[in-house]
Design goal:
The protein has a domain of about 110 residues. The chain is built from 6 helices and no strands. By secondary structure, it is an all-alpha fold. Helix 1 runs antiparallel to helix 3, helix 1 packs antiparallel against helix 5 and helix 4 packs antiparallel against helix 5.
Length: about 170
């Protein structure tokens, strides 16, 4: 593999983040415009601006990821988590992008690529050591001792009830 070539998942993260940023930008503009229509909406306007701000950060981050000259940058789990939280304002697309970004950040090729562009030694997965299995002790076969069968005890006969007559 060419060391200058970006992995496919890396490009996928960048494109999905860019598209999510554009969607959040428009989502925030529409939510803000809708909120300005009512008095209660004016009070809630700071909440409707948040997707717009997230969209701006997503576009900037995606532009850094998509640049021809890779610059040192870390995986942004914060942006991915904020994308997931857009579920609360009804943006399901950004939620899915955030979940996929977190999953892709844990891929070994993506971790190695981020380490390489940041000048850090690549992460090499180490297999756990094989467990040492000791042989089980050999047991001698012992024939079971035959014990005499216990004699069945007879149940004592129940005493007969004597019926008392009421007049006696």
């Amino acid at each position: 593999m060419n060391t200058n070539q970006k992995p496919g998942l890396f490009t996928t993260i960048a494109v999905l983040t860019l598209v999510s940023g554009i969607v959040n930008l428009f989502w925030g503009f529409i939510a803000s415009a809708t909120a300005l229509g009512t008095i209660v909406g004016v009070v809630c306007l700071p909440i409707t601006i948040l997707p717009t701000i997230l969209g701006i950060f997503e576009i900037i981050y995606a532009a850094k990821l998509l640049s021809a000259q890779p610059e040192p940058i870390q995986p942004s789990q914060t942006i991915a988590i904020l994308e997931i939280l857009t579920f609360f304002i009804g943006n399901l697309f950004s939620m899915v992008v955030g979940i996929l970004a977190l999953i892709f950040y844990n891929d070994v090729t993506i971790r190695n690529y981020f380490a390489r562009i940041n000048g850090i030694a690549p992460v090499v997965p180490v297999a756990p050591p094989a467990p040492v299995v000791e042989p089980a002790p050999v047991l001698e076969a012992v024939e079971p001792e035959v014990l005499p069968a216990p004699e069945a005890e007879e149940e004592p006969a129940k005493p007969k009830r004597i019926r008392k007559v009421a007049g006696e």
